[in-house]
Amino acid sequence: MKIRAGYDIAFQCFQETPMVLMLSVHPSRAPDLRSEHRISLSGGIASRDYLDMFGNVCTRLVAPPGVIEIRNDFVIADSGQPDEVAPAARQWAIDALPDDVLVYLMGSRYCDTQKLSEFAWSRFGAVAEGWPRVQAICDYVHDRIEFGYHHARCDRTASEGHAEQIGVCRDFAHLAVTLCRCMNIPARYCTGYLGDIGVPRDPAPMDFSAWFEAFLDGRWFTFDARHNHPRIGRVVIARGRDAADVAISTAFGVTQLARFAVTTDEVTDENRSAQEAA
Predict the structure, then answer these.
(1) pLDDT by residue (tens digit) across 157-214?
(2) Residue 196 sits in which domain range?
(3) Helix (H) / strand (E) containing 123
(4) What is the SS3 assignment for 269?
(5) What global pTM score does this model have?
(6) In this structure, are 126 and 170 located in the same domain?
(7) Same domain, 253 and 117
(8) Alpha-carbon separation of residue 172 from 49, 156, 214, 225, 246 (angstroms)
(9) Domains: count for the chain
């Protein structure tokens, strides 16, 4: 299957403002691109890309005063298969983990493991290690937090989300990641596109989504505590310790979001004909 994805984002800048964007498809999905993937900046603003310490593509630029418009529109191939489910996947002992995985056991800005460790062990210590334990954590987080865009708060930590019992997809991911780390299961935060493919369409405006990956049996598996069932058509943009590592935009100055629209749709014969006619 093919997915058409992209965005139309605008910021109001009140002075010349250096920015870092994290809006490119992750390099692991670059071979799947079926059209040009290019971040278009208004006014011919110059930019350059680099890879951060986690292997994500970042775009540097200096925005002039006024409105900067950021757009992309591309087609990417996808297997069309739902997230893999592997109930027998085992949890590895800490001393057997690869060196580059250890960082995903440690607390981070929004994943405050020290505040939830005692609770995690009391709640999940008796659950079988490996996949069953991660799934138990997802079940708990899914039931614990009430989803709502009006609950969004950019500085909410995992322990605060646990206490407040409200949040958006990033809060589900942060809490699940934190509880996994408390149980010595490496977990990393992911952000990307997740359209309503194979599920009823959500009437809310499309947004980027957050989920997480847990390291089991020597590799990373996708989990999603918000939806809590396998989904089709995830397109990862970035991975990191938590949302602080994968912000879609970081401005070194005062900016104001002026417009934000994200699209992610399966390319069908019907909408392909409509696009060609346009």
Answers:
(1) 999 999 999 999 999 999 999 999 999 999 999 999 999 999 999 888 889 999 999 9
(2) 94-245
(3) helix 117-124
(4) helix
(5) 0.94
(6) yes
(7) no
(8) 30, 11, 14, 6, 16
(9) 2
